[in-house]
Amino acid sequence: MTDLGVLQQTGAGRSAHAVGTRRLRPWRAGAHVLVVLVLAAAALLVLMTSVATGPKVRPAQSIAARPAPPPVPPGYAQLPAATQINAKFKLPVTSGLLFDVRTGRVLWRRAALRVVPMASLTKMMTALIVVSHTRPSARVRITRAAVNYSGSGVGNLPFGKKISLMTLLYGLMLPSGNDAAIALAQHVARTEPRFIGMMNARAREMHLRCTHFDTVSGIVDQGNHSCAVDLAIMAHEVLKQPLLAKIVATRNIVRPMPVKGGKVYLFNNNPLLELHYRGADGVKTGYTQAAGSCLVASARRGHKWLGVVLLHSDDPPDQAKQLLNAGFRAPRV
């Protein structure tokens, strides 16, 4: 007998409480349990169907859920059989490339696929990962590892305090702050090794043929290497990002800092910007003993936008100017 039958036998004068507490016979109790289980299973089936067919809820933003970056233009920095420009330098340079930033067309090259240490040119990829996984309005907590950095740095980052992500991005790309690189990496990925894994994954997505990262800043040379072609592709990606393009074109800037005085003064190490080379608008410098002096620079004049990569150079400013001047004089780019 169903619960409805039980209710009908109670009469109008019996209370609902009495009906609810009436002891059921064993076979009725079993039937009652069976009905409850059937109803529960039906409800679960309806719920699963609505989840599968109903509107999908957008997952929380995460590193794994983000879409892949747009591909590099086909054939970017592809090495031609012959180059348009001949260059003779007073001092040596191990490897280099002069290229059109928009198309990747190569005007000059020297051992452009030679795998060499890249020092702080590493930070181009660090910046690309950061802007892909954070918002400019974010604030970054300064960790103990960031305070205990070695090499070049912003300096005076306040341990345990949160500071603007934008301040750290300027600190990363202008004075080449290793402390900024560590703080940003830990903010995005919690640990430096995980962030390095993201850097190498992005390198594979960009089809970089001779690049491997083993540090977020470039201070470690072992296992951290690239070549002129790959660095040209990275520079193209940096200059394609409006925020990063603005940062790397900045000669100097004053940013707020939660320390005594409340400000930090940041100056760009790019020699072409320091020398006010006409049209200079980026990108990054680097130096370690193994990598030597390295420079990735860019400049615009009229409709021409050129980039230059110099690796282990004994005179990056003069060689960059010589190559860029020749490129701007060339009849077709």
Please give the order of strands in the largest beta sheet.
2-1-11-10-9
Mean pLDDT across all residues, rounded? 84
Structural class: alpha+beta
The whole-angstrom Rg is: 31 Å
- Morphology call: globular
- The DSSP helix count reads 12
Please trace the helix and strand order, writing H or E for each element. Answer: HHHEEEHEHEHHHEHHEEHEEEH
The biggest sheet, with number of strands, parallel, antiparallel or mixed sense and barrel status, is: 5 strands, antiparallel
CATH architecture of the largest domain: 3-Layer(aba) Sandwich
Strand tally is 11
Which fold name is given in CATH as the topology of the largest domain? Answer: Beta-lactamase
Distance between the termini: 91 Å
Write up this protein:
With 333 residues, the protein is α+β, with helices and mostly antiparallel strands. The protein has 2 domains: 50 residues; 237 residues, DD-peptidase/beta-lactamase superfamily (Beta-lactamase, 3-Layer(aba) Sandwich), CATH 3.40.710.10. The protein is built from 12 helices and 11 strands. A hairpin with a 5-residue loop joins strand 1 and strand 2. Helix 4 runs parallel beside helix 7, helix 4 runs parallel beside helix 9 and helix 6 crosses helix 7. The radius of gyration is 31 Å and the shape is globular. The N terminus is likely disordered.
